[in-house]
Each structure stands twice: as structure tokens, then as C-alpha cells.
């Protein structure tokens, strides 16, 4: 059993019980972890693996989502210790009467007596509640995509999130509208907190200690800032300006009635902050205000506010991929940086203990590069073999688009560098981690703005002797694969190789057949549907430019891909065949994102083989003795767009 894929999920009322997702015989499975004894028990044995698992607040049972290759399935439940009621492979139904569908969220009330799930079925979102292992009751349905953020501690209110800038950015949905004098939740029907282009909202979770009047934690994007916010029925939405940041944050309640833990992402690196929302008093106020002033002087991009006390938690440079909090306040992270594979990191806020891992050694040169443009600076991570360049260069284009490449370990980078390629990871416009303007303000020029950024970085790397002008190519997965195909046709003079796995190859066709959540994202990106703004989709469609492609193209697709369906990839391959463009179409199992690590390794191996065939030896050799041979590392994961 290898390291955890995600940080543990802890039972709030049973300090010695947790669930993990771990790699077991090359498949991710749910694992029950007894912290008292250190014993771990593999709960699932699913052929395709398991990516979603939860534990009930009292620690009595583990939940996991058993999905097929199309992403549809059901929640199952097994006692934490195993035995009666569970088989270790299928278990029993977590909630009876819930139809199979896409997992849109799961939550529990304070004690675990009531559970809630949201599932996507036939283009709509459906919310159910019921006692674990009992009969579920449909609370309500809504068209499109709504994700379940949380269930209030008293079990009477659901928080769901839709489009951040839409009318349903945060929806408060009562689980039972019948009057009850013993409760103080003044919500008679669904209440919608509407966002817009200037205000985007993300509901996070309810305060676990606010039992009588639920208090919801949110993140608000407004005035080019990301701000912690709270909502109560009696006060409405309240922003906390002392916790306002210039780039993306995530947040969660942390111990005590008003504590909040914040993870701030900026320029590819993570940092953690603890904040107290209410003002302290007396001597404590003086001490806290002194600490706050010192902190703000050191971190000028955090705004000070008299009613907010802030403490930065010491973390090593790099990326925190996942984070959870144990009942005792200990923070469990999955952390990495470019030279260090993911590993667990345990932090104890408020103590002097801070053991940070040292970076692993390596034979590659890694640089952070900024490419100036009139609209801002493009940030890239560039990894090169040892010795002088120029090198054949592959742009490893991230998916999303609402994500970003980070100072984090990527085994694909190491494998390609070891084969003699320079590897570039560019955070083009639309990427997160660089502020609201960088993410949103490129008009509706979907794809075109992004490949302009890739071209600008390429030009700089060719000019400074890093990249070979006639051997620069693109390699991408999902939306990154889409950008690779778009650039191969729209900029044929720049790119001599394109490799796209699970891509969008025909944008209008993909929109009509993809998932409801991705259709919602596309409407946001383009400002409408293909019928409403056809010219925007046409300008962004790789098939619009396929007749201009002149360099080799590798297409990797799955016949069970629900996000980037196979038929549109097959049509693009047929276009290349008709135009006599050198290409290969590789069909793989596993849907859009396989849960088997062997599948990721095989795709990477196919890409290396294809690149070496397209760019045959001899490659420019390094100076004698300058670059020792290094065995290629195995591929243990892939980008999850």
C-alpha cells in the first residue's frame, strides 16, 4: 500500500478513526485508518478503483462512490471495522432509493444521524436526505448542475453551489419546510444568493458549532479580490475585508466558534493562514493586533482589518495538493514541489514544531520564467536536461482551464526530460492563481487567447537558445489537449508536433454531448451556447483549422469518455486522414480519467514513442559527460482536469 492520494477524512466525533484513498496494487481504493493502533484496512476492491470516500461523523461506517467508466454510480457503505453488513467490495447501499447518477456531493449533520447526497441524473441535480443505510427522501431537483457543499449541523438546511456568477451561485435549501418551534432556522423555501460578473460566490461549509442558526462560510470574488465571507439568515451575506487576497483561496472552519483556515494560491505556490473572525478584547487584543501588524508588513498582499487576527502557518515552499484537519487541530496535507514527489505533511499550528522536508536531488534544471506582454506577465515553469541547449521542447499544457501548473512534482516532466526534451508548463490566461483579471478578462476569445500566450513563451525560448525552433511541440490532456489541437491548426508554422489525450476536437459537438457541469462552464466561457453565439464557437473549434495542420498529431481517446466524447475525436481523425496529415489515433480504456495508474503510464509511453518517431535521432547531443543517463520514473498519476 503506497501513500495517500488525498489527505485523510477524519470522523469529527471519533478522534481515532479516518478514511484515506490509497494506491493499492495500482488502483486507488478506500482505506479505513485506525489512528489509535495504526492499523489500515482496505475497504474496497473495485476494478476501476475509487476516488471518492467519506467517513460518518461518529466513525461507525465508511462511504465510497462506486462509479463506472462514465462517472455514474452509487454511494455504498460499510462498517468501519468490516464484518456484518459489508463485503469489503460492494458493501451495502449508503442510502436506499437514490438512483444511480453522477456524484455531486455528500454531507452529514453534526451527529451523523442524517446524510445528504446530490446526484446528477438526465441533466438535472437531485438532492436526497435520510439516515445512513436507511430510506432516502427526495428534497428537491433543479435543472443543470448544482453541487452539494454541506448540510447544516441541525440537518435542516442544505448548501448547494451552482455557477459562481449566476443566480444559483449559492442555494440554501431546507430539508423539511414543516414548522418546528424547537428550531430557529428562518428559511421557508430555497433561498438563492445570486452572483454576477462582478461578484462570484462559492459556498464552502457550515460552521459545525453554529447549531441554532446555521452560519455558512463562502469565498467571494469581487473587485479583483478573493474575500472570506459568511452568511446567516438573520444578517445576510457578510464580507470580512481583513481576509482579502489578490489570487485564489480556499477556506474552512478551524476549531473554536470563529476560527477559519485559509489556503492561498499565488504564482504556483501555496501558503496557509489561520484567522479569527471576531475581535479579541483586553490584553489579548493588544497581543493579537501586534502579531497582525507584523504579519501584514511581511505579507503586503493581505489587507489588515481591526476585527481579524491572522497567523501564517510555517510550510515549505511548494504546493499543498490536499488538506484536512483532525479533531485535535492537527493539519494533514499532501504536499510536493518540483523536485520532491507528493508526500504527507503533518502540521501542528500553535506549536514550535515545523519539520519541513528537504528537496530531493535531481539532474534537471528547473526555472520559473515570466514572459512580459502588454496585458500582463505569463508565468511558466521550464525544466531542461543538464548541459547547454537548445533542446527539442514540449509544452505540457494544463487542462481546466480553471486550474494552473504549480511548483509541484509531475512525473511526466521527469520522464520527458530524461529522454532529452525541455518541458514547459505555462499558466496561460484563464489559469487560476494569478488574480481575477488574468483568469477572466480575455473577452470570449476562448482558446485563441491561450494559444497566443503559448506562442509568446515559445518565441522567447527560441530566442534565448532554450528551444529548437524546428522541434517545438504541444502535449496536453483534456482541455490542454484541446489547446494543442487548436494551436496545431491555427499556428501551423510554430508547432512541429501535437499530442492530445481525451481532447475537445469539435467544440460544438462536444458541448451537445458532454456533462451538464461542463456545458455550464462552456456557457460561462463563451457567453452562451453554440446556437446563441455560433461565431465564437467556430473561432475556437479545432476543426475550423484542421485543413491547416501540417505536422504529426497523436490523438488518445476513450470510447467511454463522458466529458470529451469519442465520436468528435474520431471525426477529427477522419479529417486528418482525408487531408493526408501524419497522425495516429490510440483508443484506451478508463473513460476521461482512468483510475488505474498503469493506464497513465501506457499513455505517456505512447507519447514518448510518437515524439521520437516524429523527431527522429540524431538529436543534438550534450557535451561529453555533461548529462549522465537517468532511468525514467514510472508514471503514477495524470492530470485531473
Question: Can you walk through the features of this model?
Answer:
It is a single chain. The protein is α+β, with helices and mostly antiparallel strands and 641 residues long. Helices cover 18% and strands 35% of the residues. It is built from ten helices and 35 strands. The strands form seven sheets. Strands 5, 6, 7, 8, 9, 10, 11 and 12 form an eight-stranded antiparallel β-sheet that branches. It has an eight-stranded mixed β-sheet with strand order 28-29-31-30-32-33-34-35, with helices on both faces. A four-stranded antiparallel β-sheet has the order 1-2-3-4, with no helix packed on it. A hairpin with a 6-residue loop joins strand 9 (101-108) and strand 10 (115-121). The longest helix has 18 residues, at 597-614.
Based on the model shown, name its key terms.
alpha+beta, 641 residues, disordered C terminus, eight-stranded antiparallel sheet, eight-stranded mixed sheet
Number of helices: 10
Shape: globular
What characterizes the major β-sheet? 8 strands, antiparallel
Query: Which segments are poorly predicted (pLDDT under 50) over 5 or more consecutive residues?
Result: 84-90, 178-187, 280-306, 621-641
Q: What would you report as the Rg, rounded to the nearest angstrom?
A: 25 Å
Helix fraction, binned, reads: 10-25%
Percent of residues in beta strands?
Answer: 35-45%
Give the CA-CA distance, first to last residue.
26 Å
The overall pLDDT average reads: 86
Number of extended strands:
35
Amino acid at each position: 500500500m503506497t501513500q495517500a492520494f488525498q489527505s485523510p477524512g477524519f470522523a469529527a466525533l471519533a478522534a481515532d478513526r479516518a478514511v484515506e484513498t490509497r494506491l493499492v496494487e495500482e488502483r486507488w481504493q478506500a482505506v479505513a485508518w485506525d489512528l489509535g493502533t495504526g492499523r489500515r484496512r482496505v475497504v474496497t476492491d473495485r476494478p476501476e478503483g475509487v476516488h471518492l470516500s467519506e467517513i460518518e461523523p461518529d466513525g461507525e461506517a465508511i462511504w465510497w462512490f462506486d462509479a463506472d467508466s462514465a462517472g455514474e454510480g452509487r454511494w455504498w457503505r460499510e462498517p468501519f471495522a468490516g464484518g456484518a453488513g459489508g463485503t469489503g467490495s460492494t458493501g451495502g447501499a449508503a442510502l436506499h432509493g437514490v438512483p444511480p447518477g453522477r456524484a455531486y456531493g455528500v454531507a452529514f449533520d453534526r451527529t451523523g444521524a442524517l446524510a445528504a447526497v446530490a446526484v446528477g441524473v438526465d441533466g438535472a441535480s437531485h438532492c436526497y436526505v435520510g439516515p445512513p443505510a436507511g430510506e432516502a427522501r427526495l428534497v428537491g431537483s433543479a435543472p443543470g448542475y448544482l453541487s452539494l457543499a454541506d448540510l447544516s449541523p441541525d440537518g435542516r438546511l442544505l448548501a448547494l453551489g451552482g455557477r459562481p456568477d449566476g443566480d444559483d451561485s449559492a442555494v440554501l435549501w431546507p430539508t423539511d419546510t414543516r414548522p418546528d418551534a424547537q428550531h430557529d432556522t428562518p428559511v421557508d423555501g430555497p433561498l438563492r444568493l445570486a452572483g454576477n460578473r462582478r461578484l462570484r460566490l462559492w459556498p464552502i461549509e457550515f460552521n459545525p458549532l453554529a447549531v441554532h442558526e446555521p452560519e455558512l462560510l463562502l469565498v467571494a470574488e469581487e473587485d479583483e479580490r478573493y474575500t472570506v465571507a459568511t452568511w446567516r439568515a438573520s444578517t445576510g451575506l457578510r464580507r470580512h475585508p481583513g481576509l482579502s487576497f489578490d489570487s485564489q483561496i480556499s477556506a474552512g472552519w478551524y476549531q473554536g466558534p470563529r476560527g477559519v483556515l485559509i489556503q492561498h494560491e499565488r504564482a504556483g505556490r501555496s501558503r496557509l493562514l489561520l484567522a479569527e473572525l471576531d475581535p479579541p478584547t483586553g490584553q489579548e487584543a493588544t497581543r493579537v493586533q501586534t502579531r497582525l501588524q507584523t504579519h501584514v508588513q511581511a505579507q503586503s498582499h493581505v489587507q489588515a482589518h481591526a476585527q481579524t487576527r491572522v497567523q501564517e502557518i510555517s510550510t515549505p515552499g511548494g504546493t499543498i495538493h490536499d488538506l484536512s484537519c483532525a479533531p485535535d487541530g492537527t493539519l494533514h496535507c499532501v504536499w510536493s514541489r518540483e523536485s520532491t514527489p507528493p508526500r504527507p505533511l503533518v502540521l501542528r499550528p500553535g506549536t514550535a514544531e515545523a519539520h519541513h522536508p528537504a528537496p530531493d536531488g535531481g539532474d534537471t534544471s528547473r526555472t520559473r520564467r515570466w514572459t512580459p506582454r502588454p496585458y500582463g506577465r505569463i508565468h511558466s515553469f521550464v525544466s531542461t536536461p543538464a548541459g547547454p541547449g537548445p533542446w527539442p521542447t514540449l509544452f505540457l499544457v494544463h487542462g481546466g482551464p480553471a486550474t494552473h501548473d504549480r511548483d509541484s512534482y509531475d512525473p511526466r516532466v521527469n520522464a520527458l526530460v530524461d529522454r532529452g526534451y525541455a518541458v514547459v508548463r505555462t499558466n496561460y490566461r484563464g489559469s487560476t492563481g494569478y488574480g481575477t483579471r488574468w483568469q477572466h478578462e480575455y473577452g470570449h476569445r476562448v482558446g485563441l487567447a491561450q494559444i497566443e500566450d503559448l506562442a509568446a513563451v515559445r518565441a522567447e525560448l527560441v530566442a534565448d537558445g532554450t528551444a529548437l525552433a524546428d522541434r517545438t511541440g504541444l502535449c496536453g490532456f483534456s482541455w490542454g489537449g484541446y489547446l494543442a489541437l487548436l494551436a496545431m491548426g491555427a499556428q501551423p508554422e510554430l508547432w512541429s508536433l501535437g499530442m492530445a489525450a481525451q481532447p475537445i476536437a469539435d467544440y460544438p459537438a462536444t458541448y451537445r454531448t458532454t456533462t451538464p457541469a461542463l456545458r455550464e462552464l462552456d456557457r460561462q466561457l463563451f457567453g452562451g451556447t453554440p446556437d446563441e453565439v455560433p461565431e465564437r464557437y467556430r473561432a475556437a473549434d479545432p476543426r475550423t483549422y484542421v485543413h491547416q495542420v501540417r505536422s504529426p498529431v497523436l490523438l488518445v481517446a476513450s470510447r467511454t469518455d463522458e466529458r470529451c466524447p469519442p465520436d468528435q475525436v474520431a471525426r477529427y481523425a477522419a479529417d486528418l486522414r482525408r487531408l493526408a496529415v501524419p497522425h495516429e489515433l490510440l483508443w484506451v480504456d478508463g473513460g476521461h480519467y482512468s483510475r488505474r495508474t498503469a493506464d497513465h503510464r501506457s499513455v505517456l509511453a505512447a507519447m514518448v514513442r510518437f515524439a521520437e518517431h516524429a523527431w527522429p535521432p540524431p538529436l543534438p547531443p550534450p557535451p561529453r559527460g555533461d548529462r549522465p543517463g537517468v532511468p525514467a520514473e514510472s508514471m503514477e498519476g495524470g492530470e485531473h482536469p
